[in-house]
């Protein structure tokens, strides 16, 4: 399996632009083959690595991890991967129960690419905050805006990728947030 190439990244950007407008033609911009399915996991993983390295620690995390930046990054990465897997397991079950199981792989490809693009868009803001180029409040505002955008993105992914009705698509988006929050809380209990 090869890393995603420039043309595939450009196609994913065009596809996401169409997805945001609710255009089902977006599917034509993604490699929905089995190889494309597995390769779609690479882009978000690469972006995740950069994201975690740039992620600032808040006061509570600094108290827990102290000078162990590596421990913080590994723990955050584990939390992310567990939430990602749990969300996909929940969506697989949900899509099967609504007769949309045959579209699950399409949803995963779209989700992974959208996640990579949204994460990549956050990297310059994270870097600017980490290195003191941007004021500290910028990151809070950016994160809030990106969260709202992500809720909308997942609704569109579910509508187009799964072929879900609007109510189910909203449920898929809310489920994404709930799984992330629950995983954060569960792993927080470990610390």
Describe the protein in words.
It is a single chain. The chain is mainly alpha-helical. Helix content is 78%, strand content 0%. Helix 3 packs parallel to helix 6, helix 5 runs antiparallel to helix 8 and helix 7 crosses helix 8. The mean pLDDT is 91.
H/E element sequence: HHHHHHHH
Helix content: over 70%
Number of H/I helices: 8
Strand content: under 5%
Helix-strand layout with pairing:
Elements: H1 6-20, H2 34-39, H3 42-54, H4 59-65, H5 69-97, H6 104-130, H7 136-162, H8 166-190
Helix pairs in contact: 1-6, 3-5, 3-6, 5-8, 6-7, 7-8
What keyword list fits this structure?
191 residues, mainly alpha
Short description:
The chain has 191 residues and is an all-alpha fold. 78% of the residues lie in helices and 0% in strands. The protein has one domain (6-190).
